[in-house]
Design brief:
This protein is mainly α. 76% of the residues lie in helices and 0% in strands. One of its GO terms (cellular component) is membrane.
């Protein structure tokens, strides 16, 4: 199918899901949600492969920059969407208006993906000689999952999934009853702002200083957020009762969790791009990432639902420590640049070379 058409197919599922929300049909929404889950995984894997190729074409020197820039643009959607949600809620208007706006924006994005091919110049010199079958792709993901570097990376992947599930599932339930619906949008906005800002900064920091500042920062913000959350857990022994209807602590928590998410995201994406053999193994690494991430979200949204929020906060704090300690201890496993640029004649040589065609296979 190729990267472009795989991403086009994935974008259709997002448009269909957005359109299903306004129908009010629960069964249709659930079906669309299942389909968009597949589309999201397909989009995630292929954007990761694309970014890894883009970084390889510059010899790996700008991998952090490209990754950061991509996620800055991606996360800016959360800022725009939540600002619109706040405006609509404050004005007393229906959220359906925003959903239809999202539908239109998604449709335009799908059409642009078809008629504009910004990835062509990046991957034209690395077109695959053959495409892996579905069975081969599954086998490739399983083989990647057994590698030591994947086991080192797994706690970070798991923590990112747990963090996202907590942010959009449990944190809104902690907000004071008198805060109103707009409070949720404000918390999400703070989350999106720090995501957007640090997506870009993290890429620059990684290119200049390496992985250590990013690991140290997600440990600091993650544990600090856990500490504040522990003081705000509904209980007679915490600050929950004294806080009343104020939402400022939750806004701050949202900002901290946004930094935690985007920093983990940066580290994981860079590891998948740089630590695995180019081609099908890189695609399989992003597939492994998606499987682990979604498994964590499933566990936290379904299995962990009966547990009190305090236990969830403690659970997440344990995973933050585990992810940070393992990453620091085995960082060399995740930083080895496997994508070697070779000098070629033509435009790619000026960009630092490109991977040879025989090393690339499509993961679609």
């Amino acid at each position: 199918m190729g990267i472009k058409w795989a991403m086009c197919a994935a974008s259709v599922t997002f448009v269909a899901f957005i359109g299903s929300i306004n129908t009010g049909e629960d069964e249709l929404v659930l079906l669309a949600a299942a389909v968009v889950g597949l589309g999201s995984g397909l989009l995630w894997i292929n954007q990761g492969v694309w970014l890894s190729k883009l970084g390889a074409n510059t010899g790996g020197a700008l991998t952090g920059y490209f990754t950061g820039l991509f996620f800055t643009i991606c996360n800016s959607n959360g800022i725009v969407g939540n600002i619109l949600a706040i405006i609509l809620l404050e004005a007393g208007l229906s959220m359906n208006l925003m959903i239809w706006g999202m539908f239109a924006a998604g449709a335009v994005g799908f059409l642009l993906m078809i008629f504009i091919d910004p990835m062509h110049s990046t991957v034209v010199a690395t077109l695959p000689e053959q495409t892996l079958t579905f069975t081969e792709q599954v086998r490739a993901v399983w083989e990647v999952a057994k590698l030591k570097k994947s086991l080192v990376l797994m706690p970070s992947i798991w923590m990112q999934g747990c963090n996202l599930a907590f942010m959009f599932g449990r944190l809104p339930d902690m907000l004071p009853d008198g805060a109103g619906k707009v409070a949720v949008a404000k918390v999400f906005l703070c989350y999106g702002v720090t995501q957007c800002v640090f997506s870009y900064l993290n890429g620059l920091i990684y290119d200049k200083f390496g992985w250590k500042p990013l690991v140290n920062s997600f440990l600091a913000t993650g544990l600090f957020a856990s500490f504040i959350l522990a003081t705000m857990v509904p209980s007679d022994y915490t600050l929950y009762v004294r806080a009343g209807d104020i939402i400022e602590p939750y806004l701050f928590i949202g900002a901290l969790l946004g930094h935690l998410d985007t920093t983990l995201n940066t580290l994981i994406n860079l590891a998948c791009s740089k630590a695995y053999q180019p081609g099908s193994q890189t695609g399989a690494a992003f597939g492994f990432y998606r499987v682990g991430f979604c498994a964590a979200m499933t566990v936290m949204n379904i299995v962990a639902e009966p547990f009190a929020v305090g236990w969830i906060v403690a659970w997440d704090a344990c995973w933050i420590v585990t992810a940070g300690v393992l990453y620091r201890r085995h960082a060399d496993e995740l930083q080895g640049i496997k994508m070697t640029a070779v000098s070629t004649a033509g435009p790619d040589a000026e960009a630092g070379g490109a991977l040879t065609p025989s090393s690339e296979q499509a993961f679609t």
